[in-house]
């Protein structure tokens, strides 16, 4: 294979998260020469997994929605030619998510819109009209997102300011005065780091609707998406290179990028460049002076969603039965308050799941517990850096901090599953610093730039930049999550491929 420096690619893509891989596949399948540059030891971004105690742990993708036959993500995966190879396991039909409160009461989310509506009315019979109105609103809002429905024309959210400004908390509260129902309907808001004052209802609707349309786990880990996508890209002649950190760029006289510069001294030449890293980091890489100060200031001051503290436990053999559902546990009555937690009562709210492994379907080998954590909690170690590609040794104080937080999480989990500590073999965790180092944003943000119902235009990021041949993709463009990032990749590629023909290929895949 020729050296990277000897070739000019049609497209140079920075970052091998799902957004970069999806762009790579789309463009390679249209006959373009493509190279994807990844700084880490592993491709995939949030799709990465790691192994401890001979079991696999997902770092970001714990389950996925819209996977029923004919649903949008199912069709996207068909288009990528990976659906038949994906190892999927369907979650419980009658309750794929369980919303649980401190009083021990549990509320199941069943799969399918009709089943969901009926189940909620069963829990709250006196609130039947509010529930029906809510369910109808989910569908109405989702219908206004063309690509979500695999179309390029028709009614669109972009011309509906009232939809963009509709606040999730306020809308749900307007339907009913029943506080418990309000909190059940918003009970999985950790999926989008929901904030009472700012989260738009469309974010809530798109995500909840997606999981109602087919909720599955990836058997044996979510990294299979990245592995299969990379295989398809290479089959189309595309190249993917790991340990290639982009640190700068050089320009032609007309302001177009001529090549990017790597940390190891190599350069990679291209005609077009797509950045799958956070827009603020993209500005640093390509030179702040290349962007208008108004744009630069807006992007660098936009608030990101909160980060996370992720605890992984491995179990003694055959000691804890596998859960074919997820649990959203709330130790506070208001599910929106967990994001602005008090340190003394942390964690107030968290997500629990047991990964599905095909070699042991009855018992769980591990459990993942994900809770909110502000990046300021690890600020004193922000000067350090550690990944497999660039291992660094963080000081004893940091390790003690993590150990203390692990204990607090385990104390909470013991309330949900009494006696669970006796079944645990090992415990390890990831902090905001871990996510910052591996994903490449500045604060370990879970879902990138936060959407804001108070100023929707401010938090929208265009795929085009002032640099003529630099485009953006990833979770900051349309939405986060597997589906959101996939849609974002298509939006990015519409600049180079006829969008109507491209979506036709997805629909007919």
From TrEMBL:
The keyword Signal applies. It holds the Pfam family Amino_oxidase. Keywords: FAD, Flavoprotein, NAD, NADP, Signal. InterPro entries: Amino_oxidase, FAD/NAD-bd_sf, Retinol_saturase. One of its GO terms (molecular function) is oxidoreductase activity. Coiled coil: none annotated. PROSITE patterns: PROKAR_LIPOPROTEIN. Residues 18-418 form the Amine oxidase domain. This is All-trans-retinol 13,14-reductase. It comes from Dyadobacter luteus.
């Amino acid at each position: 294979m020729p050296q990277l420096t000897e070739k000019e690619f049609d497209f140079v893509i920075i970052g091998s998260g799902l957004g970069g891989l999806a762009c790579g596949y789309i463009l390679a399948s249209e006959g373009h020469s493509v190279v994807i540059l990844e700084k880490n030891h592993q491709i995939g971004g949030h799709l990465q997994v790691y192994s401890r105690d001979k079991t696999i742990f997902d770092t970001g993708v714990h389950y996925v929605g819209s996977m029923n036959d004919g649903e949008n993500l199912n069709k996207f995966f068909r288009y990528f030619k990976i659906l038949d190879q994906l190892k999927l396991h369907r979650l419980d039909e009658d309750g794929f998510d369980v919303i649980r409160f401190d009083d021990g009461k549990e509320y199941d989310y069943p799969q399918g819109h009709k089943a969901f509506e009926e189940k909620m009315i069963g829990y709250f019979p006196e609130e039947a009209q509010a529930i029906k109105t809510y369910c109808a609103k989910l569908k109405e809002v989702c219908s206004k997102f063309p690509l979500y429905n695999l179309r390029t024309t028709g009614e669109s959210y972009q011309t509906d300011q009232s939809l963009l400004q509709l606040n999730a908390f306020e809308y749900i509260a307007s339907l009913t005065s029943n506080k418990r129902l309000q909190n059940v309907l918003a009970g999985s808001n950790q999926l989008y780091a929901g904030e009472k004052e700012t989260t738009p209802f469309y974010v809530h609707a798109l995500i909840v609707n997606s999981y109602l349309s087919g909720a599955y786990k990836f058997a044996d880990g979510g990294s299979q998406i990245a592995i299969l996508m990379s295989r398809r890209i290479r089959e189309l002649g595309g190249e993917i290179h790991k340990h290639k950190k982009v640190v700068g760029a050089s320009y032609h006289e007309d302001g177009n990028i001529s090549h990017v510069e790597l940390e190891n001294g190599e350069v990679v030449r291209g005609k077009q460049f797509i950045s799958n890293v956070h827009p603020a980091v993209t500005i640093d890489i390509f030179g702040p002076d290349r962007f208008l100060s108004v744009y630069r200031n807006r992007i660098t001051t936009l608030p990101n969603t909160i980060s996370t503290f992720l605890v992984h436990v491995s179990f003694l053999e055959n000691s804890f039965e596998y859960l074919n559902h997820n649990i959203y546990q709330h130790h506070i009555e208001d599910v929106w308050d967990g994001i602005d937690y008090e340190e003394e009562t942390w964690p107030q709210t968290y997500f629990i799941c047991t990964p599905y492994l095909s070699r042991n379907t009855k018992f769980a080998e591990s459990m993942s517990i994900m809770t909110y954590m502000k990046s300021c909690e690890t600020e004193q170690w922000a000067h350090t850096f550690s990944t497999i590609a660039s291992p660094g040794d963080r000081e004893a104080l940091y390790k003690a901090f993590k150990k203390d937080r692990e204990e607090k999480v385990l104390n909470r989990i013991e309330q949900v599953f009494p006696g669970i500590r006796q079944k645990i073999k090992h415990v390890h965790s990831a902090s905001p610093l871990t996510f910052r180092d591996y994903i490449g944003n500045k604060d370990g943000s879970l879902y990138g730039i936060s959407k804001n119902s108070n100023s929707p235009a401010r938090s929208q990021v265009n795929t085009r930049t002032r640099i003529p041949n630099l485009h953006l993709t990833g979770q900051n463009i349309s939405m986060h999550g597997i589906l959101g990032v996939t849609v974002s990749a298509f939006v990015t590629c519409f600049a180079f491929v006829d969008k109507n023909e491209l979506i036709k290929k997805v629909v007919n895949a």
